[in-house]
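anyone seen this seq b4? input:
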Amino acid sequence: MVNRRTFNKVLGLGTGTAAASLAGLVHPSAASATARDGAGTPTAAPTSFAAPKQVRAGLLDIGYVEAGPAHGPVVICLHGWPYDIHSFVDVAPLLAARGYRAIVPHLRGHGTTRFRSARTFRNAQQSAVALDIVALMDALRIEKAVLTGFDWGARTADIIAALWPERCKALVSVGGYLVTNLAANLKPLDPTAEHAWWYQYYFATERGRQAMEDPCKRDELNRLVWETVSPTWDFDDATFARTAASFDNPDYAAIVIHNYRWRLSLAEGERRYDRYEQLLDARPVIEVPAITLDAELDPFTASGDGSSYRDRFVGAYDHRTLKGIGHNLPQEAPADFARAVVDADRL
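predicted toks r here
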């Protein structure tokens, strides 16, 4: 169990710090994966968030949860695929205990986030997703925030830090510099890397699209991804089911399929985003203070301890590798992730 006392110990702090508000959480401190009895049956329900708030932001009605004081410095935590806001269910109270206002939104196509118009193209190209978060910040009247994330969320945070640095106080990016370059994505990777991306190619087929539209096959596939990319994470059925509820979004299949097909140049984006994609094709540097995190057991972690993307971070910078951790780093190692946020804010 990760609690405030544990977090303070991790950070080398005393236990006399005043407790911060944990509004928005059902239980402020509990592990994501529950204990099991001798038969392998979960003995308690996993920690969860209260019902998300909703706010109109750009093209979306975004569902989000928050924890911590309303006027605290803001940290925006962005999830990846196939995950949801619960990747940060244990990170949020740790940040709240340090006085941060942690905001965790459902990305488009996930959870309670909905498109405001049935006519809007269900687009998941990278700049569109990034602009959703800028619109969220505008809607919540947040001028600047620490941006954090993994997988799709890290890419989104990287893009905002690169294109709108005035909105980003600091950055924590799992996996480093994840901005997509479509031309580079046309080139083959080494066989091991290609094998790890098997579902990306599956989604390029009609069978893959049908699988994402079938609730049973979708959940089986997503759970298989959890198991393979986080080989040491001992999550239980209740933990997966809690997140899988977010896959019931009516736009989930369309968003997932478009995201991966667009990245392989198998689906078109929208012209309204061309100017942003042109800027991103140039691999813009990130000038804001940044900490990059690599998970040792994540099959997508680049070799070289961050050296392959080090030149993209030109401001204050630190890199950390977490041993024995897989792809869903915030949920597998919440104290390490929260510490990186606090440290990035101090760079």
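The beta strands are 53-57, 60-67, 74-78, 101-105, 114-115, 145-149, 168-174, 290-295, 317-322. The first helix runs from residue 4 to 11. kinda curious what u guys think
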